[in-house]
Design goal:
The protein has 2 domains: 2-76, no CATH class; 86-347, no CATH class. The chain is an all-alpha fold. The chain is 73% helix and 0% strand. The protein has helices at 2-14, 19-25, 37-55, 59-72, 79-97, 99-111, 135-157, 163-172, 179-207, 210-224, 230-233, 235-252, 269-300, 307-324, 327-347. The chain is elongated and about 70 Å long.
Length: 348
């Protein structure tokens, strides 16, 4: 019973005492309170499958599982409401529970710590394909990706994907207080929390991606540790590295809105947070484009004199960008890589 109580206490704190959160999670403890253990495990497996479907972009499948789950858990919600709440609350708990490990992962990523491991020999571009994306870094990338997908699903199910929808909710929250407006205020509070998670996760995903934590760090280190003439011989690369730093500071170092996840928030924050989260996602995508330009210039601009090293780096970059980059920016990056590879082959 102590195990069950501890879990319920944590869930209650995460959902601000929500009775519905208790229902959605009580089967985790069913072996301790006399409920059928087999049924409990089955329902928890279905909850996991539902959330995995969201991560895979299968909202139709997730909704088909949400209805029976809500009924099994005796929750008076529609399938859409149940799924939206589960996504939002689990994203929030994952974000809060991972605070220390997230800070550690980001610190390792931005410092290029993977290249400081004792025993590492001279790193060649072909080596970067495996073994350089540290577990502490990759775990945070995957966690941020999951948090973002769950939070965005919650927003979509509430009809708050656009700035216009956020503004409409904000206006409704300004109506004189009533039972209806209190419900709107609750929706706004959840939306603000989801939007904060979307905006924060965009930066974490970028910083802990293979493209930034491995490729950009490799180029920056090769440039910094190159011969005395490297700076003079690679002015374009220097400008790109400086631009990446300024761009990150200006666009992604932007201070968050005053609200935090722990503070009560109301409707007026929704539109501001929607616009802020959108800006962060666009800025993260733009940063990936800049990283692709850095890789291309490093391969063809003199940092890597051997064309084979340049081709190897481009091959690794193409693989990494396939997984790290949004579709539009990915297409642009792959086009840049292929043109650069053609020039290197002509030189060889």
């Amino acid at each position: 019973m102590r195990v069950c109580a501890a879990r319920l206490q944590g869930l209650s704190a995460g959902s601000q005492g929500s009775r519905r959160a208790w229902h959605s999670s009580r089967l985790l403890c069913s072996g301790f309170d006399g409920l059928d253990a087999t049924a409990s495990l089955s329902t928890e497996a279905q909850l996991t499958e539902m959330l995995q479907s969201v991560k895979k972009g299968r909202l139709d499948l997730a909704l088909s599982l949400a209805g029976p789950l809500a009924a099994a858990l005796d929750v008076s919600e529609t399938a859409q409401q149940f799924l939206a709440r589960e996504c939002s609350e689990r994203a929030w708990r994952s974000h809060e529970d991972g605070r220390e490990s997230r800070e550690r992962g980001i610190a390792l990523a931005v410092s290029g710590a993977t290249f400081d491991i004792p025993g590492r020999l001279k790193v060649r571009p072909a080596h970067l394909a495996e073994g350089f994306w540290l577990r502490d870094v990759s775990d945070q990338h995957h966690r941020a990706d999951t948090i973002s997908k769950l939070a965005r699903c919650s927003l979509a199910l509430r009809g708050l994907e656009s700035a216009d929808a956020a503004e409409a909710l904000q206006q409704r929250c300004r109506v004189a207080r009533s039972s209806a407006s209190e419900e709107e205020a609750s929706t706004a509070e959840t939306a603000v929390r989801d939007l904060l998670l979307v905006g924060r996760s965009a930066v974490v995903k970028l910083q802990t991606s293979r493209s930034a934590a491995v490729l950009q760090s490799f180029v920056a280190r090769e440039f910094a540790e190159g011969s005395p003439g490297t700076v003079a011989s690679c002015p374009a690369l220097l400008n790109l590295l400086l631009r990446a730093g300024h761009q990150f500071t200006d666009s992604l170092g932007e201070l968050e809105p005053a609200q935090t996840l722990q503070e009560p928030v109301r409707g007026p924050a929704v539109l501001a947070l929607r616009l802020w989260a959108d800006r962060r996602q666009l800025a993260a995508a733009r940063q990936m484009t800049t990283i692709s330009e850095i890789i291309s210039e490093a391969c063809s601009g003199g940092l890597l004199p051997d064309p084979k090293d340049g081709l190897d780096l481009l091959n690794v970059a193409e693989t990494f960008f396939q997984g790290d980059c949004p579709l539009k920016e990915r297409r642009q990056a792959l086009s840049v890589f292929r043109r650069t590879a053609e020039r290197l082959r002509e030189q060889g």
